[in-house]
């Protein structure tokens, strides 16, 4: 069964796949796995190599690369979930790649489920200094999608190797200084730079608008800033910084030769 599942996944164009016991998932800030699927036994994690377009000097091209990847990852994960249900009568829970997630005052900008921790549990890599997962072949240039299932699958071997070069290029190239403390990403510092047109900017815009004259309001609505706010509102994520990925030398050769 498991080999058939693996072959089905890879035949979809997924670059790698790992399996984890639900008990091995250990993300201290996430909700319990059983809150997503009460009879969860395993997690299937799909790995997708990030294309070179995501490192374009044009932020719109780079962001579009991630939007394309996200669309493909969602489609692949959905097809895998359908396969598990139809073929093995399994129960499944497809986990969000980013949004949507619940908003609570004690969980500021924290996703309900960590794709990174699931990938590590499934033997698909290890954490680097940038707190991203470094894949054995693709390095930092990889994204993940996870499916929780009621099927009892054999876990993949854990990866004990340290792939990080500890060069600190990610720390030095982070404009928000979000990686200064080892083992921690300051989420708010990261989001301020990577998502400058997010919720905080939206609130600030409308607050300023309410205290502006009609002439000032017209100028605000005609500004590039407002256009980007509008675009971000329907894109969901409008990332404008990829320095932690772009500066990481691990996996560069693999991304150029695959």
TrEMBL record:
Domain of life: Bacteria
Gene Ontology terms, MF aspect: iron-sulfur cluster binding; metal ion binding
Record carries keyword Metal-binding: yes
Domain 4Fe-4S ferredoxin-type: residue ranges: 155-184
Keyword entries, A-Z: Iron, Iron-sulfur, Metal-binding
Name assigned to this protein: Alpha-helical ferredoxin
UniProt source species: Lucifera butyrica
């Amino acid at each position: 069964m498991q080999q058939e599942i693996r072959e089905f996944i890879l035949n979809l164009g997924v670059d790698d796949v790992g399996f984890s016991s639900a008990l091995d998932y250990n993300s201290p800030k996430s909700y319990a796995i059983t809150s997503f699927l009460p009879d969860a036994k395993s997690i299937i994690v799909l790995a997708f190599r990030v294309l070179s377009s995501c490192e374009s000097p044009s932020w719109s091209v780079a962001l579009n690369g991630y939007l394309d990847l996200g669309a493909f990852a969602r489609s692949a994960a959905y097809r895998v979930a359908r396969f598990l249900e139809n073929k093995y009568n399994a129960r499944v829970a497809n986990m969000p790649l980013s949004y949507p997630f619940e908003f609570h005052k004690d969980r500021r900008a924290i996703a309900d489920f960590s794709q990174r921790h699931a990938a590590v549990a499934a033997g698909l890599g290890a954490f680097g200094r940038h707190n991203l997962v470094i894949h054995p072949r693709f390095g930092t240039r990889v994204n993940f999608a996870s499916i929780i299932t009621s099927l009892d699958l054999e876990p993949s071997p854990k990866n004990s190797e340290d792939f990080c070069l500890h060069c600190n290029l990610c720390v030095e190239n982070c404009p928000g200084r979000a990686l200064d403390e080892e083992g921690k990403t300051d989420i708010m510092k990261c989001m301020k730079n990577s998502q400058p047109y997010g919720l905080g900017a939206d609130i600030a815009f409308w607050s300023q608008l309410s205290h502006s004259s009609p002439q000032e309001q017209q100028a605000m609505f005609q500004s590039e800033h407002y256009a980007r706010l509008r675009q971000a509102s329907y894109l969901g994520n409008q990332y404008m910084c990829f320095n932690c990925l772009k500066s990481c030398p691990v996996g560069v050769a693999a991304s150029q030769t695959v």
